[in-house]
Amino acid sequence: MKKLLRLLAAPVFAATIALTAFAGPARADTPESDAEIALQWQTAWDTYKFYKTAPPLPGSGRSRDTAQISVEINAPVKRVFEKYSNINNHIGRAAFLKRVITHKEWCQRDTRYINFTAIEDIPYQGTIVTSKTHAQQRIHQEDLYYETDTWSEPNVVTHQKIVFKKLPGGKAQVTEYLTFDADTSLIDFVVTNGVASHQQTQAGLKAAIESGQL
After folding, report:
1. Which one of 61, 135, 136, 160 is separated from 35 by 20 to 30 angstroms, measured CA to CA?
2. CB pairs under 8 A, 24+ apart, for 159-165?
């Protein structure tokens, strides 16, 4: 799976490098402070409005595609929800995810909001490219689902809804509804890579929860 993701990463990160004028030696982490990354998050939120779910307009040069993936986990649904919805538990299980920077966290009625940036170190042509994915997560604990909207270079937006269902025998089903918006020339790659990455994360979380590691 990691080999597949590494191969798939090449065209998008070539585009990312060109768009962001990446130069200089590879870094183990970002050169910016967490406060500077928080400002980048706000700029991305205001500029790209990745929280909006309207599909790209015809003729915009952008396309939308969707996918749905599920996994069954042998653990009580509330425990699965608690562990799975904690983005920090994805570190070491999601492809290339190194750390998560939480910018703001608050509750409004029954919903918990978290603004964060995911830092990923991605192998690319013998070096490491550090990528930042800006996101907002909305956790609906009473209804056992959460939503996450993300934006990353080169102008890729995802909308995610992750639903948790109680199954007989003390098991849980996790279903991810994924929506991808990207430039039309990249949409097939984005969907393939995105689905593969989420499947790897699902498998990692399933193993960790069932083993009691989480």
Report:
1. 160
2. 159/53, 162/84, 162/85, 164/77, 164/80, 164/81, 164/84, 165/77
pTM: 0.85
Set out the domains of the chain in order of their start, with CATH numbers: 2-22+29-51+63-211 (3.30.530.20)
CA distance 21 to 94: 26
Q: Decide if 203 contacts 88 (C-beta within 8 A).
A: no
CB atoms within 10 A of CB 73: 23
Report the alpha-carbon distance of residue 101 to residue 82 in Å, rounded.
Answer: 19
Residues composing the chain: 214
